[in-house]
Design a protein that fits this description.
- This protein has 333 residues and is mainly α.
- It has a single domain, classed as ABC transporter involved in vitamin B12 uptake, BtuC, CATH 1.10.3470.
- 75% of the residues lie in helices and 4% in strands.
- The strands form two sheets. A two-stranded antiparallel ribbon has the order 1-4.
- It is globular and about 50 Å long.
Length: 333
């Protein structure tokens, strides 16, 4: 009888450990802690870091990559990867700027949407129709799109002044916090895609295809159709990113966002989405995007050269992938 309290305490302790273990192993836990630590460190380094104007700047600087990272998340969830998503968005800015002068901004937006969706469909069609590796397909289309963009633009930049095309760069006051409609658009993209992934059959199919495509196929999931739809949605998101880019900097430049593809992969991986598919989500990607934004902004305030910032970001990616590999091995035991 005297051992009963001890046994009960032991039982409670053992039952609590699995729950705590699950929390510690959750992808969002690590990325959230990393974000908080980065904020604490840079706040200690520079008193300007937590100024409302600087926090707003971090969000504004994260808009284009943050939006494109949503598209990258969808594709990585299917165990794919897209090296062309940034190039599609850059082409979108050139098409928007050129077409607006001829047919007006509203029609230019629709035409750019068509172009971006067509390129996303091309990627998805090559992956599903010819069963080619997504890495090879998007590497090829990346090279072709970059070249086509520079040929189409004649290696020139195109200033944009149409209020509709620059609308997402317009500032808005949210209870004393100054931000832009581009930031709001980015958050809306995360909300819509997050809802689709977690609350719809399509989202469940995306996770199923990425987790185990053979099992998904046997369960009745049309795997090729699901993968193709993901690349199409990525094209739509790329068009939104192109629109946001012109709001951020009203100048269509064929040489802009050269590292966008790698930066989106960085945000996705740091946010806890597995490169092997089937695990992760857009909330983690948002946190990953903010980590990269906070890191670059904080290092800039600390006077660190941009090249060293790239080194720090690269190390962060390697650590994130290593952690992902470790968690996969541990969960497979």
């Amino acid at each position: 009888m005297t051992n009963t309290p001890t046994m009960a305490a032991s039982t409670v302790s053992h039952s609590a450990r699995p729950g705590l273990s699950r929390i510690l192993q959750a992808p969002l836990f690590g990325s959230t802690i990393a974000l908080l630590l980065a904020i604490i460190v840079f706040t200690a380094i520079s008193p300007r870091f937590l100024a409302p104007g600087n926090l707003s700047l971090i969000l504004q600087q994260s808009v284009v990559i943050g939006i494109l990272a949503v598209a990258q998340t969808l594709i990585i969830l299917t165990a794919g990867i897209d090296l062309s998503i940034g190039a599609i968005a850059v082409l979108g800015t050139i098409v928007l700027a050129q077409a607006a002068g001829s047919v007006g901004a509203p029609v230019a937006l629709l035409f750019t949407l068509f172009v971006c969706v067509a390129l996303g469909s091309l990627n998805g069609g090559l992956v599903t129709g010819l069963r080619l590796p997504p890495f090879i397909v998007t590497l090829g289309t990346f090279t072709a799109i970059v070249a086509a963009t520079r040929l189409f633009a004649g290696s020139q930049t195109f200033p944009v002044s149409d209020p509709l095309l620059t609308f997402l760069g317009t500032t808005v006051n949210l209870g004393g916090f100054i931000t832009t409609y581009g930031v709001i658009a980015m958050l809306l993209v995360y909300i819509v895609v997050g809802y689709a992934l977690t609350q719809t059959a399509w989202g469940r199919h995306v996770y199923a295809v990425g987790g185990n495509p053979n099992a998904a196929l046997l369960s009745g999931v049309k795997t090729n159709r699901t993968i193709l739809s993901v690349y199409i949605v990525a094209g739509v998101i790329a068009m939104i990113a192109a629109w946001a880019a012109l709001g951020r900097i009203p100048n269509a430049d064929p040489n802009a966002y050269q590292n966008a593809n790698l930066e989106t992969i960085t945000a996705v991986v740091i946010g806890g989405t597995s490169l092997f598919g089937g695990r992760g989500g857009v909330l983690g990607t948002l946190i990953g995007t903010l980590i990269v934004g906070v890191l670059r902004n904080g290092l800039t305030l600390a006077g660190v050269d941009n090249l060293y910032q790239n080194v720090a970001t690269g190390i962060l990616v390697i650590v994130a992938v290593a952690v992902d590999q470790f968690m996969r091995r541990r969960s497979s035991r």
